[in-house]
Amino acid sequence: MTRLDQNRAQAQIAARLNVPVDKVKNVTIWGNHSSTQFPDASHATVEINGKAVPVPEALKNDPWLLADFVKKVQTRGAAVIAARKMSSALSAAKAAGDHMKTLWQGTKPGQYASMGVWSDGSYGAPPDVMFSYPVTIKDKKWTVVQGLPV
Prior knowledge:
There is one protein chain. By secondary structure, the chain is α+β, with helices and mostly antiparallel strands. The chain has one domain: Lactate dehydrogenase/glycoside hydrolase, family 4, C-terminal (L-2-Hydroxyisocaproate Dehydrogenase, Chain A, domain 2), CATH 3.90.110.10. It is 36% helix and 25% strand. It has four helices and eight strands. The protein has a three-stranded antiparallel β-sheet with strand order 1-4-5. A three-stranded antiparallel β-sheet has the order 6-7-8. The longest helix has 17 residues, at 68-84. The chain is globular, with a radius of gyration of 15 Å. The two termini are 22 Å apart. InterPro entries: Lactate/malate_DH_C, Lactate_DH/Glyco_Ohase_4_C, Malate_DH_AS, Malate_DH_type2. GO terms for molecular function: malate dehydrogenase activity; oxidoreductase activity, acting on the CH-OH group of donors, NAD or NADP as acceptor.
């Protein structure tokens, strides 16, 4: 459910900046799901007045991005269950649909999505495990984005 975490991360940033969610691009979910993931907005952009602005710049390097944001995305599923006494099934279903749409339609130039894929050891992750990376997708084939400073 990496895409669920990506959607949650984008929503948190959009709310903080008071912009529509679809204006936030290239948020990365590293690792696994829930508490074993790391949501990363250091390479994300947000469209403000028609211009792509790095999220850290748009947030004026707000400490929220490295503290509360990370924890909130990691614990959002548990918070929903605690508040509703049931899972966030509709959000998960939406994320599954978003995932399939991206897989089938591909990513737009300059954009990527987070996806749990078989690790090749990129970015120091253990090889031969499922790991969430930023990926580009073309012709229904994913490629791990390389070279992002981490």
